[in-house]
Specification:
Layout: H1 12-32, H2 46-72, H3 75-97, H4 114-135, H5 143-169, H6 184-188, H7 190-210, H8 215-237, H9 243-286, H10 296-313, E1 317-324, H11 327-334, H12 336-353, E2 360-365, E3 368-374, H13 378-393, E4 408-415, H14 424-440, E5 446-448, E6 452-453
Parallel strand pairs: 4-5
Antiparallel strand pairs: 1-3, 1-4, 2-3, 5-6
């Protein structure tokens, strides 16, 4: 999609916001870390709420990224969607096997070490797949790169499922990382070094490869920073339900949320731009681009409706055909820009005369205009014309090449549903014929159909 976040350059405001969020993450980690080992009450509903929130947030993130990938074919988007699909699988399965949520030891035959190993796999796999997504930015945009993005989007959740199965099935034989609530053994385990290395490498790779040149790369780096903060707090906590343990899971939610917030913001901005574009297109479809009067298409569509309304309401309708006298000579002498300004001025003068919302003016073609006056009979049309012609003269436009003054000629025709039954085209033909008679009679004149003179 044209306004996708990965194509959006970074503005100063976005840098400030991302910097503030990153600063808050760092400040939170530094504030909690000295007290990370403080034990807090065991809140049993915390894990279900945490896992459900992560699933919903990362599910929406993956969905939005997949939509953009399908539309743009950008491998980065597909691969990044895969990293969030990886996290979704891990969050769901960890919820099912976490001790004390659905059963004392967890479901699916999980052992006492399964949940902590799931955490290790989760916090290693997400940054690894994020790095793979970032590496696709180095690929040229070809069908082969699109296939790479699609492959990573499909492989990531499959890998999550496979490693989760190994963690669950091998829960009884895996090296112990937790003893009761304490996972002090995790600190000295090579597994923790792998988790730390994966998170540091992912954050560094994202910054080095993308140079944070676009919004999505910027906010992905913030998400990876939050993920790293989660690992640091878990390392400092040393046990479940300590302050660092709770804080780490809050940072997991933050890590899952920041990219989603960006995508929602981008979709909202795209929707706003789309609405403005639709309004612009609608305006172009209705209005003449030069004068601001309605265009001929609008007149052709609306005029029969006004005739139909006149018949239903049993009220008259008058139609004025207006032609600008000596316009070609004026345009030739003073230039096209002056000719455009002449038409704009005349349209403005006519609009000032049309006081009722139902009346409308349309540019019929060139220097020819039509005015539709619903609910207006011959007398009402005559009163409006009596004000219209002086309003045009008051513009005091310079004379044309022929020496003639720019004025307007008008042809008038009225439809009375109490006595007329002809089609809208016939009323238009009558007004056009009356205009022809006005021009033929010497210009700066008004003629009503059947050669009756109005307002002269």
């Amino acid at each position: 999609m044209d306004a996708a976040a990965e194509n959006q350059p970074i503005g100063r405001g976005a840098v400030w916001v991302a910097g503030i969020v990153a600063g808050c993450i760092i400040a939170a980690v530094l504030a909690i870390l000295p007290f990370a080992a403080v034990h807090l009450p065991v809140i049993v509903p915390f894990i279900p709420i945490f896992a459900t929130t992560v699933c919903l947030v990362e599910g929406l993130t993956a969905y939005f990224l997949a939509i953009q990938f399908r539309a743009s074919g950008d491998a980065f988007l597909g691969a990044l969607a895969g990293s969030y699909c990886f996290s979704i699988v891990m969050a769901v399965l960890q919820l099912l096997i976490f001790p004390g949520v659905f059963s004392k030891t967890g479901l699916l035959g999980a052992g006492p070490q399964s949940a902590i190993w799931m955490w290790v796999i989760w916090h290693t796999g997400y940054p690894v797949f994020a790095v793979l997504a970032v590496l696709t930015r180095l690929l040229p945009q070809t069908p082969r790169s699109r296939h790479a993005g699609l492959a990573l989007m499909l492989v990531a959740p499959a890998v999550a499922g496979l490693f989760s199965y190994l963690a669950i099935a091998g829960g009884g034989v895996l090296p112990p990382l937790i003893n009761g609530l304490s996972y002090q053994a995790l600190r000295d385990s090579p597994a923790m070094a792998v988790v730390l290395a994966a998170n540091i490498a992912a954050l560094a790779a994202c910054i080095a490869i993308t140079r944070l040149r676009d919004l999505l790369s910027l906010w992905l780096s913030v998400a990876l920073l939050a993920s790293f903060g989660d690992v640091v707090l878990a390392l400092g906590a040393g046990a479940r339900y300590n302050l660092g343990w709770y804080g780490g899971r809050v940072l997991t939610v933050v890590s899952a949320s920041v990219v989603l917030c960006l995508l929602i913001f981008e979709f909202s901005r795209l929707y706003s731009r789309l609405m403005k574009a639709n309004h612009s297109l609608a305006s172009r479809a209705l209005y003449d681009g030069l004068t601001g009067a309605f265009n001929r298409g609008y007149f052709v569509e609306q005029f029969p409706r006004e005739i139909g309304r006149s018949i239903r309401d049993k009220t008259p309708l008058s139609l004025l055909m207006i032609d600008v006298d000596h316009f070609k000579a004026y345009n030739d002498l003073h230039g096209h820009q002056a000719g455009d300004e002449c038409l704009i001025g005349i349209v403005g003068a006519i609009k000032n005369i049309l006081r009722r919302p139902a009346d409308f003016l349309a540019r019929y073609g060139g220097e020819e205009f039509v005015v539709v006056l619903p609910g207006t009979g011959r007398e009402g049309a005559a009163q409006l014309i009596a004000a219209l012609r002086p309003a045009v003269r008051s513009l005091k436009l310079p004379p044309a090449a022929s020496g003639g003054q720019v004025t307007v000629s008008l042809g008038v025709a009225t439809f009375d549903p109490l006595r007329d039954s002809f089609a809208p085209e016939e009323l238009l033909r009558r007004a056009d014929l009356a205009l022809y008679q006005a021009k033929r009679g010497g210009r700066d004149a008004v003629r009503e159909f059947e050669s009756e003179i109005l307002g002269v």
